[in-house]
Amino acid sequence: EAQLQLREVAGIPLQASTVDNWNQIQNFEAKPDDLLICTYPKSGTTWIQEIVDMIEHNGDVEKCQRAIIQHRHPFIEWARPPQPSARNAKDCMVSYYHFQRMNQMLPDPGTWEEYFETFISGKVGWGSWYDHVKGWWEIKDRYQILFLFYEDIKQDPKHEIQKVMQFMGKNLDETVLDKIVQETSFEKMKENPMVNRSTVPKSILDQSISPFMRKGTVGDWKNHFTVAQNERFNEIYRQKMEGSSIHFTEL
Ligand code: A3P
């Protein structure tokens, strides 16, 4: 139990394994053509990883099946520029709650009511959603950063995948793009053992509690938030995001 407690580094609660690798993380130096994916947890990390890998390999499914996604895109916080992807805070909170229920390496989230407070206080693994999203949004024009929204990819995957392709300096034809859209759909990825975490032991990720590929939708927060929670959330959101021009289609 104790080892599951998050430990703070520079004010950010982190999983123990991340803390153990802190030196490596701080000393990480990107090479000029590195592409870093900087998602807040549960914002579609796996999705964008698969999209990037598909683009990199010109839509070759077999090449993308060479290894599980965690090995094709090592996590900097665990192993060793940037493309943040943001998902609206409400759906993100719901997804994170179910993830903490099934992830045996993270603290038990408690009840939904308890988790709601934990999330808005920012005391969740890898820190506050508000700080992450606000921070990347603020600097996105100063560096070579492609800022994507989960909701946009969901609504028009082809258009967003095309943006990623251009950012990566690739030029794939229409049929390849269509294939990537198909192969990275939620339905396909849920069945794909190279991305759905089915190879991770149950002692780490217990998918009988909640599947890793859970719902993959926009607006599931409406099935979780009470009216009172929603009002409280909106008020705190306004305070925390004050001064930021970022706009989410789902809020
Ligand atoms: P839900 O829990 O709402 O279903 P991460 O990879 O950062 O941990 O994010 C996980 C979330 O992204 C989960 O959300 C998961 O279902 C969703 N997701 C993964 N692949 C997806 C896809 N191809 N399309 C839509 N959502 C996807």
From TrEMBL:
Record protein name field: Sulfotransferase
Family stated for the protein in its record: Belongs to the sulfotransferase 1 family.
Top-level class of the enzyme under EC nomenclature: transferase
Origin species: Canis lupus familiaris (Dog)
GO cellular-component term (any): cytoplasm
Intracellular or extracellular location(s): Cytoplasm
Gene that encodes it: SULT1C2
Pfam families: Sulfotransfer_1
Keyword Cytoplasm attributed: yes
Main location: cytoplasm
Keywords attached to this entry: Cytoplasm, Transferase
EC number: 2.8.2.-
GO BP annotation list: sulfation
Catalytic activity: 3,3',5'-triiodo-L-thyronine + 3'-phosphoadenylyl sulfate = 3,3',5'-triiodo-L-thyronine sulfate + adenosine 3',5'-bisphosphate + H(+); 4-ethylphenol + 3'-phosphoadenylyl sulfate = 4-ethylphenyl sulfate + adenosine 3',5'-bisphosphate + H(+); 3,3',5-triiodo-L-thyronine + 3'-phosphoadenylyl sulfate = 3,3',5-triiodo-L-thyronine sulfate + adenosine 3',5'-bisphosphate + H(+); a phenol + 3'-phosphoadenylyl sulfate = an aryl sulfate + adenosine 3',5'-bisphosphate + H(+)
Keyword Cytoplasm: yes
GO molecular function: aryl sulfotransferase activity
